[in-house]
Amino acid sequence: MPIRRSLAILNKLTQASVLAAGDVMLDRFVYGEASRLSPEAPVPVVQVRRKTWTPGGLGNVIMNLHALGAKALAAGVVGADGKAETLRRLLAGALSEGSPGLLTDPSRPTTVKTRVIAGIQQVVRYDEESVAPVAPAVEDSYLEGALKALPLAGALTVSDYGKGLLTPKVLSALLDGAREAGIPSIVDPKGSDYGRYRGATLVTPNRAELSLALGRDIDRSDSDALAEGGRELMRRHGLENVLVTRSEDGMTLLLASGETLHLPTRARAVFDVSGAGDTVVAAMAAALAAGADLAEGAALASLAAGVVVGKVGTATASPDEIRQSLAIEEISAKP
Hints:
The chain is built from ten helices and 13 strands. Helix content is 38%, strand content 25%. It has a single domain, classed as 3-Layer(aba) Sandwich (UDP-N-acetylmuramoyl-L-alanine:D-glutamate ligase), CATH 3.40.1190. Strands 5-4-1-8-9-10 form a six-stranded parallel β-sheet, with helices on both faces. It has a four-stranded mixed β-sheet with strand order 3-2-6-7. It has a three-stranded antiparallel β-sheet with strand order 11-12-13, with helices on both faces. The longest helix is centred in the last third of the chain and has 15 residues. The chain is an alpha/beta fold.
């Protein structure tokens, strides 16, 4: 995509409004140094230096939308605990007026993922969560708030992390609602049943998720195999468009028209791919809500992902950082 077009879309993101629905969680990062193994087990001993809390999953999509300048409307579910209050505090400044916010379900804990990082290397992750389906009363309350906010949005994102919120009823109601409202919907998928996502404008599996859905391993560096696998997924489940994210190998966009676009990575250095998929979803949704087509949105998402993978931990990309990447590309393209 021409650099001028990317800049024009970036400048319009402040006019974009996105309803972000799905599984919200807290990402806890424990940073330290490891210089020896434990005498109790063959594991490193990490000397903790600092700890941080950041919104994860749907929360990271919201933070990325906010960082890009778009208006974020959130619809998530949390437990009745202190972690939920931490999430609300962290997200408060990123949510736009009319946002449904985070619904409390006292029967489940707020999902927390804790990553222990020694230097720049993640050494372990442990999760606190419930993946049981939410109760019918929670489904109804959640959908009441989410569907009420749809008319305020120019695009819908659905973050499926398999935590029990996106039941068949909830998922179909969200996708049907977006279609009836005439706005594009983007799903970050989970599991192997992609028939659940029929009706979405775009589904964004990564290479591992695509392999799981197809029942065979696909090398992320093999562009032809990825494209073939993505097309097979589309045929099996009646999907309109698919964007396969490939970490440092870029992305592959498969369009309903039959066109295939391979987008190389825009990263100058890769330190951490945690949350990069959330950045792709947020940037794509914001671009579509601002009037971009899928190819233009994917190009912008590639730029945004290239920024965040150069950072350690769950991160966001700002328009200024993306403009800087575009400027470097323009200089590099000159003879």
